[in-house]
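QA checklist item 7 of 12: single-chain prediction sanity check.
[x] sequence parsed
[x] length recorded as 102
[x] structure emitted
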Amino acid sequence: MDLQIIQEKENILLSRKEINAKIMFDGKTPSRQDVQKELAKTTKAKEEMIIIRKIDTSFGTSTAIVTANIYTDAKMLKETERQNLVEKHIGHVPKKVDEEAE
């Protein structure tokens, strides 16, 4: 996977950087965790402070546009971002479906 930052905007009021990036990949679209790790390497930020807002893949291509926020303050991250996005990025385990119910 190759990541290229297209736009980077500093948002001082929310203690974050707003990133738009382009990723080129082989095979299936990378997961949020994979993109988060690659973005952390590129920007030298902590993985737990990065929230991937959207991965937009064009049909039939092996490129995607990523929208992400990189926070400098954990408190602002939890206050600003939607709860479901925060849970996805901190390793929230989804509820398992009972096999007996099927």
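[x] summary fact logged: The longest strand covers residues 2-11.
[ ] second reviewer sign-off
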